[in-house]
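Dear all,

This email documents one entry for the complex benchmark we are building for the journal club exercise. For each entry we list the sequence lines for every component of the assembly. Then comes the predicted three-dimensional structure of the complex as a token string, followed by one or two observations. Please use this as the template for your own entries, and keep the labels exactly as they appear.
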Amino acid sequence: MHAGIKPLGGERWWLVVLLFPTMIGLLFGALGSVLATIVISLLNWDLITPPTWAGFANYTSLLSDTLFLRAMRITVLFSLAYVPGTIILSLLIALLLNRKLFGLSLFRTIYFLPTVSSAVAVGLVWSWIYGRERGLLNYLLSFVGIAPINWLGSQNALWSIVIVNIWGALGTGMVIFLAGLQAIPREYYEAGSLDGAVGWKAFRYITLPLITPSIFFQTIITTVHAFQAFEYVYVLTRTANGASNAPTLVYSIYRNGFNFFRMGTASAQAIVLALMILLLTLCYFWLERRLVVYD
Amino acid sequence: MTKPIPIVQTRSTSSIKANKLLGDIASYLLLLFGSLIMVGPFLWMISTSLKLPADQFSRSFIPDPITFSNYTRLWELLPFTRLIINSLTISVLSTVGQLLTCAMAGFCFAVIDFPYRRLLFLALLSTVMLPPQITLVPNFILFRWLGLIGTQVPLWLPAFWGGAFGTFLLRQYFLTIPFELAEAARIDGASLMAIFLRVYLPLAQPALAALAIFSFMGAWNDLLGPLIYLPTDLERTTLTVGLSLFQTQYSGRWTVMMAGALVSVLPVILLFLVAQRRFIEGIALSGVKR
């Protein structure tokens, strides 16, 4: 980082003005919010009666809260399927597009459409595709003799949601991998082909090591997104009483905080969510030192 | 001895070419199959929105007859113009807020030399890892205390507090602008603000455009925010929540619902098509450089 321009005299006030909104955000939006959430998680507060001290009761009761445990289980299972699914498929698409085919930008646009579209609007179509009685998917499957499946029932909802979420995330992953692939110098492949590294071998020994930074970055981003899954869950799996057939952790936070107004419980769950993301990120950074190759 | 060599070489290059051709064909087939899955739901959305309600379960892809009545019906069933105006207001204000505050902070971190610059930047960056859900409860309580629940203010005001992603994106772009420009302007007696407004902002248009698209789309597609802060009444909520309310109120009216879904994705898709390059460069910029 170069030294930069020094503000002179009255310009220091301009510096303060320029940085002011960001500092407010950092101080109150980030630091203040975290502290406030921690404090609220130690209270019983329904926003109507004055808050009372709860200590760690909001946390200890999570351990026996079957709804919360279910949300945890679903969030973990969701991530275990969604993260590798998104990474592998978007890498595959990027590899195909990196062959410098005709029509690359058209394909890129098409693969990107779900990413830019509102999950609610697109979720409406998916709710119909997944419909049990007249859904498009069951109709197509009937041609191969598969009996109608209740895609959004509590049995299958989780996996149906994983599919839609992967579908919606391929665009971003593809762009990041494509940028990583295009940064690999051609000479590496030319040199490699002299040693017989073509096809799978070229991928395994040249491409894969050189895009580990992109894979690493994508894994963190995708994991953070996985733990925050909400929108498709809300649109596709909400039941008549406001519960869900595949309630994720964020859905549970939303329900507790803004349907039941249990501010303490919602805050405790938000803290658990943040800690899980923090822990995983630390694990990834530990792995990065062992696995990621920077030239 | 010299004769066979060229023959062997042409053979191997031609077989490499044939391999490449086969690989290209296989790639095309895979990509086309994938494209069908990606774009299929959108095509089905369009097709259904043009069918008569009586034909909503017909499996034919081409509507017969084609009707636009679902779109007029949409405006009869819902205060649709109102919903669009609400979404537009929140999205535009959020975008303005992000552009303004992120450009201001990004310029400071990229160009100005001030104490604790590195430390503050790292502190800001670390907040990327903070899940936004952790701010939900305190923000709700704060805005409730301010008496702003039910208004649009909580949905766009936080955009004026800057943001780690936008600031990082613009800072990265500002760093690619040759620093000599700023130095030259400084020697000519330009003030800090003049360097910001006349040198850096005009040159950063691509990155500003990328951030504008990200912010607009984020606000336009947001579901959780309006669900929490706006009353579930169709006059005052946003297009996304309006659609999900429609889903529960008029379930089964798929043709009208698909028309509504299409109207709500169309603005962002058009925006994306127009500014596609900026958008994709923005993602690559935020993803590759460290």
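Observations: DSSP finds 13 helices and two strands in chain A. The mean pLDDT of chain A is 91.
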